[in-house]
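new request in #modeling-help
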Amino acid sequence: MRDVAIVGIGMTSFGELWQTSLRSMWAEAALAALDDAGVESVDLITVGCMSSGLFTGQEHLAALLADELGMAGVPAARVESACASGGLAVRAGFAEVAAGLADTVLVTGVEKMTDVDGADATYALGTAADSEWEGFHGVTFPGLYAMLARIHMLQHGTTREQLAQVAVKNHANGLLNPRAQFHLKVGVDDVLRSTMVADPLRLLDCSPVTDGAAAVVLTTVDRARELAGDRPVVAITGSGMATDTVTLANRPALGELNAVKLAGERAYAMAGKTPEDIHLVEVHDCFTIAEIMATEALGFFDPGFGGSAVERGLTGLQGKIPVNTSGGLKSKGHPVGATGVAQVVEVTEQLRGESGQRQVEGARVGMAQNMGGSGGSSVVHILEVV
Amino acid sequence: MRDVAIVGIGMTSFGELWQTSLRSMWAEAALAALDDAGVESVDLITVGCMSSGLFTGQEHLAALLADELGMAGVPAARVESACASGGLAVRAGFAEVAAGLADTVLVTGVEKMTDVDGADATYALGTAADSEWEGFHGVTFPGLYAMLARIHMLQHGTTREQLAQVAVKNHANGLLNPRAQFHLKVGVDDVLRSTMVADPLRLLDCSPVTDGAAAVVLTTVDRARELAGDRPVVAITGSGMATDTVTLANRPALGELNAVKLAGERAYAMAGKTPEDIHLVEVHDCFTIAEIMATEALGFFDPGFGGSAVERGLTGLQGKIPVNTSGGLKSKGHPVGATGVAQVVEVTEQLRGESGQRQVEGARVGMAQNMGGSGGSSVVHILEVV
């Protein structure tokens, strides 16, 4: 198996991008990553996208996008694992380079969510849950995560204020990220007074509907050293995937995210790392409770201590383990298929020391954790300066 | 890169399966392949499916299906390249085993197309074309392939009767395949008298709307030898992918399928084979013209001679290069995401010598060619007894 590195990164600003189409914003991110890498051709394009069918009436997406870039002919593959589609696109590219099937891969993620109205977007997102056993009964994702929050509060004493503090921290980080959807200082009281969505989750506990695209260029570590010049070479040293039941009702326990735990363990094992070795992590905070549960599942805190960790500032920019320096899904925005790739963009930028005001000093090992549905799938990558 | 083999195959009968759901028919094929392989656990599941979102209101498909099989926890990835999604699922599994990231992969393809009405199915299939530049103007796939047929007739003198003879041959083969959707003897006159769909293509030139699932189990050639007992070991020695413009209007020429040509060349190069080495091939005959063009693009016949080759019987069961021994998409049926995997099932069965009345005697090298849209993407695999 060959060693794999990230030699280029690019992304659009995230937001409600009314003026642009899926293919145009995808091309913007892809061209930025190719330019950053200094390469003009690739052997493969992977595209993470949850539901271009329901959001834009377009399948066969990867071939379409290859042509948009003037690369008709180049192999192109779309992958889908709901909101973990971007992480899966990274994995698919990683496997091809590791196997020696491709030398250079353009890995991308994209979602155009605002071309349909709110009800249709809610329906499309709802197809990440079990349509027969969950969606049929009317539950949508705020409701599913509200149940997870209630159980976490009951089992572990996690408080309403601790949930709010996740939003406060991530919005503070997002203020320092020029590509974030929201540049908005948020206090605990703002969260607690925001509109109730699904008790106990309020509007400011929820990630938004977002348009956006992100891209990274993968190649072998050997070629990356040639391309990098005097920039640090960032390698992918761990890659782990796992699933859990999509249906919450089928799980033996609801206080933990088992797919995240398993994917994390697989990534740690491949990289030969433990949670103590990680200098920063992007986790999948689609709702505030998700960040708390993810940090526990990845071993940064014991089960039940994710909430108090936020309260104590352990996950802040200067904390023991900075979490979501980008602003996370909460503030940076959550174009579902793009999110997993954008997480890798953020971690790479941090490891290169190019994150400006939100830079984690001395960061040399980082992690990105992407999740589908209410934890039905997860993809975790560990990145290191090599 | 490790050598990869197919150790298990399984599929449902294809047809209008009103009595079963996507997940149930998928599990039937998956369990059959695992049983055939004699393995009880896998490291990864890949799922080729074009549009479970539009056909059944369900995304996040791979995680859902892993759980359906009692395998929640196991990594699972859905891939999509329109009607080439099944071929892409084979490629994704191949890459993971080749890289050493997985030792055993369950590769699957599925599509449940009859849970929506005909207009909605036509819309869903139409999303494999360019929604902005083709679909918006009202063209659907019979229309796109009718244009390809007209150009082929004009440039090469391909005749209306030659198109019909593709259907006659494939329906004759399908009569010998117990899992085919149609068991129907068709003559040239039947095709020529069938309802006009899009001039020059008539009803019997078109593959049907179909429900179905197919599965294969991949592992290393070394492990395959242990599992195979006294059965032949069938390896995947060539894997090629390519794209073309999705939009027909963007192509410099319409008389050839460039993605098929490129994907074929890449597969031949990896396997160290030429068209003369191939003993049988499953090609993507979504319309009769597609089979003729595919056999030319893969190098079995010179450009413009695919039509006369059918007429001369060169592609029949006893011909120089038997094409679509399974009955092809035309007679076996075309559940779009399942098709590419079902092609590999057929070729594997042939190479094992287990194809009964439609067995190609002495077949030791076979090919499967899967295609998305009107040739916007293609995936080609070469299989060999090793």
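bot summary: The CA atoms of residues 348 and 354 of chain A lie 9 Å apart.
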